[in-house]
Sequence to fold (373 residues):
Amino acid sequence: MTLIYALNLISRWVLFGVALHKAYRERDRGWVYIAVSFFLAAMDPERFLLAPLGFHLNPAVAFALDMVNTLFQGVLMIIAAEYIKEEPGMAKMTFPLAIGVLGYFWIIVTNAGELSLSFTAKTLLPVIVYAAGYLYLGIVILRYSLTRGPVPKLFPVGMILLGILNATYPYTATLKWFLPWGFILGTVFRVMMAIGALGVVLWPKIQLPSITKTVAESGTVVYTDHKVAKDMLKSLGEEGIVAITRSELNFLKSVLSSNSMVFWITRVQEGEIEKSPIVYAISPTKLGILLDLVSKALSSGYRTVYLDAFEYLILENGFTSALKFLLDLKDRVLIHGGKLILTLDPNTLEENQLKILEREFGEFKGPASQGSA
Fold:
């Protein structure tokens, strides 16, 4: 059983580590909530810190604190799921917060000394919220995850299975014969989650189409007229490019070669949605992953990167984060001797923002301005 406890503890810290890494890399609020929830799970003081040292809290206090910890994790998971789907409004945030407040009062009332309630009654609401959080978040990640393949899917599948297992806890925890088996099952599901999380968070697997190394004049070009930029796309012919775009999909399919790589910026869905050219839908907030994927494409031979979604990235991330992404993208393209084609409308920018961009790309004199290498 010592090995099972060790695996359980290690998997908890791995989950916290990869969630924290993803939250930091992408500045994604949903993953910040997931990281906090996983931290609470990893820092279970009674089971993993005090008990191995021979110390124990007062049983009544330990039980109440465990229920608060459990409830808080569930609420955080539900909130995280809403952020992964889309930026939630006040109404969507109110529900999990209200459930959290209700669960908190449930814990206070059911642990009052004057009442003599069963274990099932005391744990029912906090554990159900906890289980619902894992179930809901697992389903959302399974639906919206960018990566595909059996290993990354272990993360949301393990989360769903753990949620189902914990939903039975108010009853099964009263069965002494089931307790060790339940802990073993929980450990198996957490290990599944940890392995899958490494695949989802650290190594996004996207299959790039085969391409011979293309040649492009190194430098940057800025188009201030979206119609002119679209006409330029048509002129690329059979050259394979990387496009980061909000353009209409049928248009992209009609003008881009089959070996082009398109990252379609949207909050509606994620993952592969077209095969010729390859089109991956990706959230506008996943700037870190997007940079990694473009770098991978550049390393595989692509030399032209087209971006027409900069204004949308500003809207979703703020100007500072979008600018940092753009400058990192520019540097990576130029390091590979490639060309960055940027399309934006100067009228959508504030004067100081425009000056910053012109300092990097040159003055926007007309529908197409050539920058320096």
About this structure: The chain has a mean pLDDT of 82. The chain is about 60% helix and 10% strand. Residues 59-85 form the longest helix (27 residues). The beta strands are 219-223, 242-245, 261-265, 271-275, 278-282, 304-307, 339-343, 368-370.
